[in-house]
């Protein structure tokens, strides 16, 4: 009876974790003109969420329940182990992406505040940094991720030029 109750608890956790994972994979809704800082903020938020979830999964309360179910050879643990692994992968991806995007952070200010001429001086270094990310990041080197990042950088450059034209 105790095992059944604990299995029910784990089934609820599995359902909640699946929901979190599913939501994290959904398309992001962003403003059409969002800049590269929005990309960094997205991954920082995601990293925080998954790290909190990992902390909860690693808590002594959860470990005790999982240990009891392991002793009882519960079938619910197969799903649990898979989700635990998926959460770890998602947390690692977010952490890695934040680390790589922080290397671009020094370019975001000049993109947003410089004149078009000054802004262009930063583009070669920025593109080299993006190339480095593409070549070395285990998670950020997909066309989808790169397209999103380059779109946001382009948006920022366009907004900077618009501001320059309107003020000039």
Concise synopsis of the structure shown:
This protein has helices at 2-25, 36-57, 60-71, 76-102, 105-113, 116-136, 143-167.
SS element count, helices: 7
For the biggest sheet, the summary is:
none
> Please, what is the average pLDDT?
89
Low-confidence stretches: none
Termini gap = 76 Å
Order of helices and strands: HHHHHHH
Radius of gyration: 21 Å
The fraction of residues in strands falls at under 5%
* Helix fraction by DSSP (H/I, runs of at least 4): over 70%
Number of domains: 1
User: Which structural class fits the helix and strand makeup?
Assistant: mainly alpha
GO molecular function: dynein intermediate chain binding; dynein light intermediate chain binding
InterPro entries: DHC, Dynein_heavy_tail
Organism: Opisthocomus hoazin (Hoatzin)
Pfam family, one: DHC_N1
In terms of topology, how is this protein built?
Blueprint: H1 2-25, H2 36-57, H3 60-71, H4 76-102, H5 105-113, H6 116-136, H7 143-167
Helix pairs in contact: 1-3, 1-4, 2-4, 2-7, 5-6, 5-7, 6-7
């Amino acid at each position: 009876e105790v095992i059944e109750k604990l299995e029910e608890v784990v089934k609820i956790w599995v359902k909640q974790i699946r929901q979190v994972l599913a939501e994290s994979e959904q398309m992001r809704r962003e403003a059409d003109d969002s800049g590269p800082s929005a990309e960094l903020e997205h991954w920082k938020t995601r990293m925080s969420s998954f790290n909190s979830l990992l902390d909860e999964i690693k808590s002594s309360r959860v470990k005790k329940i999982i240990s009891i179910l392991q002793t009882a050879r519960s079938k619910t643990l197969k799903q649990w182990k898979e989700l635990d692994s998926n959460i770890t992968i998602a947390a690692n991806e977010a952490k890695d992406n934040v680390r790589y995007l922080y290397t671009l952070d020094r370019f975001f200010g000049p993109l947003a505040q410089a004149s078009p001429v000054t802004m262009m001086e930063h583009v070669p270094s920025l593109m080299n940094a993006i190339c480095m990310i593409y070549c070395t990041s285990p998670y950020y080197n997909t066309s989808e991720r790169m397209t999103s990042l380059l779109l946001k950088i382009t948006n920022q450059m366009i907004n900077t030029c618009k501001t320059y034209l309107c003020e000039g």
